[in-house]
Amino acid sequence: MKKFAVMFTVLFVLSMAVTVFAQEAAPAPEAAPAVETAPAAVPAAEVKAGDAKIPELLMKAYEKMTADVTFSMEVKAKMNNQEFVTKTKAYFKDAKHYRMDSEVAGQKTRMVIDGDVAWNYMEAANMLMTMPVPPSPTDLKKDINYTEGKDGENVTFTFTDDATKMKVVTTINPKDNLIVKMNTFNEKEELVSEMNYTDWKFEKIGDEMFKKPEGAQEMQMPAQPAPTK
């Protein structure tokens, strides 16, 4: 269960990180006209629900995508009625050691999680900013609620955050145990981000992939202000 919790955290980080990158690199509204997209909905044909017992198909897919593998993601994120496309190359040694190189609106970033160290590198500014490491398994609920469904020949698993009501829908090709796409929906069931996975390569990922760029200026992520009463 702990191993799954780590992988689930990684997948949730993947679904949100590219949205953060897009927000940081996005041009002013007048420089990027809105792109109209068709309304999206959470896949239908939901057939059953589950909790702490994680489906074998989902376990195999998560294990496969977080162990000595590289893959590409094209992410479409919608913010402020604008759509941004992010292209990302991911390198996974394991669920606690991975790197994501992304480009959005002409800006290149690199996010690295290396055990108990995490940082984000902005190429144009040659600046590296340390950031909190994603939550450990002990910070997650032991019971993970999900709904299983179908999308054509593929299988879907929908996870809902109780607090925010946001949903992450993971679609898996059961023939090769690979994730096809992962979509995030807000509390109104509006599509927030759509991630499509391609170019899978299973090869050894060395520690050199996680080295900090030489000469980069290092900064600490600003502390979040305390909530006001």
From TrEMBL:
<protein>
    <recommendedName>
        <fullName>Outer membrane lipoprotein carrier protein LolA</fullName>
    </recommendedName>
</protein>
<feature type="signal peptide">
    <location>
        <begin position="1"/>
        <end position="22"/>
    </location>
</feature>
<dbReference type="InterPro" id="IPR029046">
    <property type="entry name" value="LolA/LolB/LppX"/>
</dbReference>
<keyword id="KW-0732">Signal</keyword>
